[in-house]
User: Which sequence fits this backbone?
């Protein structure tokens, strides 16, 4: 069987995406693909497990690479893995936006409302997230707004949602894959997207750049990696299978439903994106004044 390592907990936006691709991969590969959720340390536990696995093609990680690989090295002083040297990129699969969201029962309808609300709260209130992109997006928003809002870090996405609905958090910063369902279900109100342009599936929601934060553009992407040293023919076969899944009509529909765009590619494109994003995230982390853990 093939192990598909997931950086985040069952029921998270990441888990939804990983399970979809793993299920389709098992059909193409003709063998079981077992999802292993290893949440914690903003994805580092799963990434480390993948790095240290046998490079035989039987362990892979479908991951938000811009976050777990490119951003991680700027957010943690010491990583137990090398985000570039310990992995072989297979291909990109999708790109998406993150978003800031509030409890739908509050009268907060815009980013301006949220900013005003936070300024009235003791210590400028609190927000929840559980991954690198969510952290950087919220910290950039804070820094550009002159706020001191406290970050609460969550291992499980559902726990952050529960605390938001219970009034213990003022907002959450998560991927739109997870938030789109909660927004449509009326639990949360998505206020703004982190990407530079609006999301096709939720066209009414403005971007942070449109909401008074010019130049704000965080558009994470997903890709597949295997441990470094995995034989080239295996990498190529996996890449072809993943592109076949991404380009299928059912996947395009599934991705649109979770406000995510397909992004087929190859190993070279993903390697280039990793290098580019490693530089970009260094800049974002600096702008957000985040001190590495």
Assistant:
């Amino acid at each position: 069987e093939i192990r598909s390592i997931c950086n985040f907990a069952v029921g998270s936006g990441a888990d939804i995406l990983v399970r979809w691709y793993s299920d389709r991969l098992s059909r193409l590969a003709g063998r079981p693909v077992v999802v292993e959720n290893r949440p914690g340390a903003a994805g580092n536990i799963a990434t480390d497990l993948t790095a240290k696995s046998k490079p035989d093609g039987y362990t892979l990680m479908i991951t938000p690479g811009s976050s777990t690989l490119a951003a991680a090295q700027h957010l943690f002083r010491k990583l137990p893995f090398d985000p570039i040297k310990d992995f072989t990129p297979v291909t990109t699969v999708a790109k998406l936006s993150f978003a800031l969201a509030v409890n739908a029962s509050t009268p907060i309808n815009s980013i301006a409302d949220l900013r005003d609300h936070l300024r009235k709260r003791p210590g400028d209130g609190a927000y929840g997230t559980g991954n690198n992109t969510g952290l950087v997006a919220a910290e950039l928003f804070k820094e550009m707004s002159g706020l001191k809002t406290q970050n609460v870090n969550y291992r499980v996405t559902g726990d952050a949602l529960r605390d938001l609905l219970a009034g213990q958090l003022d907002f959450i910063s998560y991927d739109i894959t997870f938030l789109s369902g909660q927004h449509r279900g009326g639990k949360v109100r998505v206020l703004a997207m982190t990407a530079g342009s609006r999301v096709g599936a939720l066209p009414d929601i403005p971007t942070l750049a449109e909401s008074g934060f010019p130049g704000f553009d965080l558009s994470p992407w997903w890709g597949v990696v295997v441990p470094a040293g995995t034989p080239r023919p295996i990498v190529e076969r996996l890449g072809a299978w993943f592109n076949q899944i991404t380009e299928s009509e059912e996947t395009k529909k599934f991705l649109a439903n979770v406000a995510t765009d397909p992004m087929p590619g190859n190993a070279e494109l993903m390697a280039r994106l990793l290098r580019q994003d490693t530089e970009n995230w260094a800049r974002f982390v600096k702008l957000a004044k985040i001190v590495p853990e």
